Amino acid sequence: MKRVKVRLGKSSYEIRIGPGILAEVGHRLTESGFSDKLVIITNPIVNRLYGEALEQNLTREGFRVTILSVPDGEEQKSLETAGRLYHELSNFYAERATPILALGGGVIGDLAGFVAATYLRGVPLVQIPTTLLAQVDSSIGGKVAVNHDQLKNKIGAFYQPKLVISDISTLKTLPPKELANGLAEVIKSAVVWDKEFFAYLEMNLDRIKSLDEGELEETVLRSAKIKAEIVERDEMDLGLRHILNYGHTIGHAIESAADFRIGHGEAIAIGMLAAARISNQLGILDQTELLRLRSLIQRASLAIETPSLKLDKIIQAVRHDKKILGGRTRFVLPKAIGEVFITDEVSPSLVEQVLVGWHEET
Ligand SMILES: NC(=O)c1ccc[n+]([C@@H]2O[C@H](COP(=O)([O-])OP(=O)(O)OC[C@H]3O[C@@H](n4cnc5c(N)ncnc54)[C@H](O)[C@@H]3O)[C@@H](O)[C@H]2O)c1
Ligand SMILES: [Zn+2]
What we know:
Elements: E1 2-6, E2 13-18, H1 25-31, E3 37-42, H2 44-60, E4 64-69, H3 79-91, E5 100-104, H4 106-118, E6 125-129, H5 132-138, E7 143-148, E8 151-158, E9 163-167, H6 176-193, H7 195-209, H8 213-233, H9 248-257, H10 264-281, H11 287-299, H12 311-324, E10 331-336, E11 339-343, H13 348-356
Helix pairs in contact: 3-4, 5-6, 5-8, 6-7, 6-8, 6-10, 7-8, 9-10, 9-12, 10-11, 10-13
The chain binds nicotinamide-adenine-dinucleotide and zinc ion.
């Protein structure tokens, strides 16, 4: 089992990463000073796979446990579902000291985190992420949110968990598509921060994809360390933390042009490659680095071509993003693998050019 500390003064917490550590949750919570009752928020898929075992473990440790299950899917990240959960928490007489355990992927983590941040002005939150994406990205850093008026993560808060428990054994039941989604954020972490980690991924990607426990643990650990370090330096997302949006400007545009029928990781993989091509066209990123990135994305079973969506729909969505940012579209571009910079000076025609021009690369 490995540990990563997120140092945020009084809001500091630990991330624990390892195989089979779901079995230690009860003990860990007692150690952290929790007792009496707690609430698990999850969905039926994750509940069937891990909820019952977790409940037994917690009951053995002396906790009174209530499981609140919400249907699977992004559309549950809503004020309506949050409202239903507040109601159920009241029925259970949840108090200020009653912890909420978010057991699931990023959807459950964001939703349960939002509920924990707001119910009774905040109850303790424990993240137990069960997707690769959630273990390497969404469970760390305290961004919790629901969607509203067709806009993702529109209503939310910064609310750090008390503890994150990433049991990498849970990744064994993930559908391959979800593994690839998580790998996109893993590759993102390496490109924005750590060229040695990128080289590690090039070397070990096949073993990671075959769910080798040692490689999975190392991958989650290294990604979690990167995210923790960036969040420690910019908890409130005022500057440095923006680099984690690498691939997300065009990625979000693709997601919205596809009415969210495309995986988040899949969309940002295309966004990462597009941003790299922009940088290459501007004479900044080397062609060899661009090709290394393209090859790793492809090996991760992520698409390297713009999906068959109308290009103008994507461009329109990029423009929409621009309105939100006060007339500027902000891009995170790689200088080299392991180092990025932020700019709002990318012409719309260059964006269009890189989105249609995949086939030119060899
Ligand atoms: N808060 C943040 O900083 C942050 C960062 C990145 C993404 N996000 C959010 O995360 C969400 C996406 O998260 P996600 O990719 O984890 O999606 P998800 O939560 O929808 O999970 C993907 C699918 O995998 C299933 N699943 C979960 N764990 C499983 C397991 N161990 N075995 C089998 N199936 C399992 C889920 O039920 C779901 O069907 C988005 O809403 C996104 O906005 C938040
Ligand atoms: Zn993302």
